[in-house]
Design brief:
With 204 residues, this protein is an alpha/beta fold. The chain folds into 2 domains: 141 residues, 3-Layer(aba) Sandwich (Rossmann fold); 53 residues, no CATH class. Helices cover 37% and strands 15% of the residues. The strands form 2 sheets. The chain has a 6-stranded parallel beta sheet. The longest helix has 15 residues. The radius of gyration is 17 Å and the shape is globular. It starts with 5 loop residues before the first strand and ends in a 10-residue tail after the last strand.
Length: 204
């Protein structure tokens, strides 16, 4: 990827492992609907494979109120800090993410704020992915063009499609529920696919 100066990351299921959050959500849905957690998880995956929000859809299917997201259960992937440390030696690092208020404090608590030069979070910017305005805000903050930037995220609909629309390069990191997405359209095809952050080091 020539002429790239900035790498923009999503947070959830990209830098931060949300698996314990989803386990908590599925457990609460199962309890509310009086079914097994295994059943909830299985049904959610079926919906994810249909390019739907499996967690939301299974709650609707079972008539359960969708549980509150618990960010305290989020942890960094094992390779997040080392990868950011290495990549930040060559590139500027930014964040483009749909987040509840307090993004910067969470990044500080994770111990990765020092690697990040620009943060464009939906709760602060008045736009949320897949709205391309959030990407444009991030680029403006960074002072770079779309052609000089790469978007790295786990969701085809929220990360890859809008980033491609404005001319950014894209990398799909197949972690979390987003890994089940079935690519069916031209605008959903990323420039690269990786299974974890360390894979980025092979070509960045």
């Amino acid at each position: 990827m020539d002429n790239i100066k900035w790498l923009f990351f999503d947070i959830g299921s990209t830098l931060a492992d949300e698996s314990k959050v989803y386990e908590d959500i599925f457990r609460k849905i199962a309890e509310a609907a009086c079914v097994s957690e295994e059943y909830v998880n299985q049904k959610a995956i079926e919906f994810y494979k249909q390019n739907k929000r499996g967690d939301k859809e299974v709650a609707r299917l079972l008539g359960a109120e969708f549980p509150e997201w618990n960010p305290k259960l989020e942890t960094l992937y094992n390779d997040t800090i080392e990868c950011l440390k290495i990549l930040s030696r060559t590139y500027k690092i930014g964040i483009i993410a749909n987040q509840i208020p307090g993004t910067e404090k969470r990044l500080e608590a994770f111990g990765i704020r020092d690697y990040i030069s620009v943060i464009a979070a939906s709760s602060d910017e008045g736009a949320a992915k897949p709205d391309t305005r959030l990407f444009e805000i991030a680029l403006k903050k960074a002072g770079c063009t779309a052609e000089e930037a790469v978007m790295i995220g786990d969701r085809i609909d929220n990360d890859i499609v809008p980033a491609k629309e404005i001319g950014m390069k894209t990398i799909w990191i197949k972690q979390g529920p987003g890994k089940y997405w079935k690519v069916t359209k031209e605008n959903e095809i990323p420039d690269r696919e990786v299974s974890c952050l360390f894979d980025l080091l092979e070509f960045l």
